[in-house]
Structure formats: C-alpha cells, structure tokens
Design a protein that fits this description.
Blueprint: E1 6-15, E2 22-32, E3 37-41, H1 48-55, E4 63-68, E5 71-72, H2 78-88, E6 89-93, H3 104-108, H4 110-114, H5 119-132, H6 148-160, E7 166-170, H7 178-195, E8 198-203, H8 206-211, E9 214-219, E10 222-224
Parallel strand pairs: 3-8, 3-9, 6-7, 7-8
Antiparallel strand pairs: 1-2, 1-4, 4-5, 9-10
The chain binds adenosine-5'-diphosphate and magnesium ion.
C-alpha cells in the first residue's frame, strides 16, 4: 500500500491534571488514504473531536506519532505546520464560526487573506467557490443573515477556497434539519467523488457514517470494532 495521507500511531491525549485528569484518547491508530471518505463514529465524549483535531495537526498528542504523507509531524516547523493547515486542510465544524457582521465573501476568503493572497485574486477565487456552492448571489450579504444551510455551505466554501486535499468535518450537519443536512452532505460527497478531496467526518449520525467509504468506531478513547449508537448521543 502507498504511504497514507494521514497516519496516527498509538496516540494518547489527556486533558487536565491530577484528579481532574481525563484520558480522552488511550492509544488510537488510524490511517487515512488519499481520496477516501472516512467516518469517525461514537457517542458523545468518546474522543472523536480530539482524534480529529490531532489528525488535523490542530493539537499535539501526549504520546504516539502523527504523520502526513509519511513525514513525522513532530519534525515539521511551525511554518510548515501553518502552511499545511491553511493550504492543504479545510475545516467544517458544527458551529459555523463565521464572522456574523462580515460579508459572506469576506468570510469565505479569510484563508486566502491569511495566506497573503492579494485582494483581486481573493475576490476571483472567493466568487468561484461561492458559484460552486450556489451562493454567489449572497456574496455581499452579512453572514448573520444566511439560513442554517446557507451558513454551512459558506463554511464549506471557506474550507474549499484554498483547494485543500483534505476536509475535516466535525458534526457538519449537527445544527441542521434533516433535509438541509442531507444537502450539505451531498455537497461534501460530491467534492470527494468529483474532486478527489479526502473527507474525514466526525459524526454520531449513522446515516451519514454509512455514506462514507469506511467507518472507525470510537468508544472511551479507543477504537472498537462495532458500536451501538444511542439516539440521543451527540
Ligand atoms: N479542552 C478540554 N479540557 C478538558 N476535557 C476535555 C477537553 N476537550 C475534551 N475534553 C473531554 O475529553 C473527552 C472527549 O472529548 P471529545 O473528543 O470532544 O469527544 P466527542 O467529540 O466524541 O464528543 C470528553 O469527556 C470531554 O469532556
Ligand atoms: Mg465532538
């Protein structure tokens, strides 16, 4: 098998210290191949978001290794890490994290601004992704005035604007009604099928998990081979 795009080897992560210490991940290994879609599934508190944050190099494990394209992440410079996060990774979270009073376009081009792309090119590329997500007519609206589904599509547009290789989505449909959630899912899977973007999706939604090529089940900070999901898990 070729080198995995992302790999975690026996990673552990605890929060807090002393009696307040909580072991969120107790030895997890995972490989994500370029072009696949994988669901990380489990009940609330099982460690899904922690695992995704570590895979996305947003946080460091207490022990274990993380690699991207076979390169040990602990060997990367801060500059290389920032570039990876900003240019190769796109993020879609349950909370939209849009700046409410900024325009949709300004929200979407933020990663380009961080990358130092000039104003004219930002607008061109921002409008192109907004077209792709059928939001071009909302470009000048304030983000706060979008519907829930439009907000999540704006977040996907922002995740896409840098042409990422991987989209990390944490409960991407958690705040949406079923029909809107399904449309947002369709958008993510078409990016996977048509553009080869790798999807890492954290979810407790069995239907969404089933749409992914592969599922990884997490319970109490470790991988398990099957899991019963509670209806009310989140
Ligand atoms: N920053 C933090 N400080 C303390 N505990 C945390 C922190 N983040 C997560 N936890 C705890 O770690 C466990 C796993 O959290 P998380 O990875 O968010 O789970 P999931 O996404 O599966 O709901 C939970 O018990 C949570 O309360
Ligand atoms: Mg979570």
């Amino acid at each position: 098998m070729s080198t995995a795009l992302l790999e975690a080897r026996d990673i552990r992560k605890s929060y807090g210290t002393g009696t307040a210490r909580f072991d969120a991940l107790t030895g997890v290994s995972i490989q994500v191949q370029a072009g696949e879609s994988i669901a990380i599934v489990g009940k609330s508190g099982s460690g899904k978001s922690t695992l995704m944050h570590l895979l996305a190099l947003l946080d460091s494990p207490d022990s274990g290794e993380l690699a991207i394209n076979g390169a040990d992440s602990s060997q990367l410079s801060v500059k290389q890490l920032n570039r990876l996060r900003n240019e190769d990774f796109g993020f879609v979270f349950q909370q939209f994290f849009l700046t409410p009073n900024a325009s949709v376009l300004d929200n979407v081009v933020l990663p380009l601004k961080i990358a130092g792309v000039g104003a004219r090119e930002r607008t061109t590329r921002g409008m192109a992704v907004l077209e792709q997500l059928e939001l071009a007519d909302k470009a000048k609206n304030k983000a706060i005035n979008l519907s829930g589904g439009q907000k999540q599509r704006a977040v996907i547009a922002r995740a896409l604007v840098n042409n990422p290789r991987v989209i990390f989505a944490d409960e991407p449909t958690g705040n949406l009604d079923t029909v809107t959630g399904r449309l947002v899912e369709d958008t993510l899977f078409s990016l996977n099928k048509d553009h080869g973007i790798t999807l890492v999706i954290v979810t407790h939604d069995e239907d969404l998990a089933a749409r992914c090529d592969r599922q990884m089940f997490v319970r109490d900070g470790r991988e398990v081979h099957a899991i019963a999901l509670d209806q009310d898990a989140a």
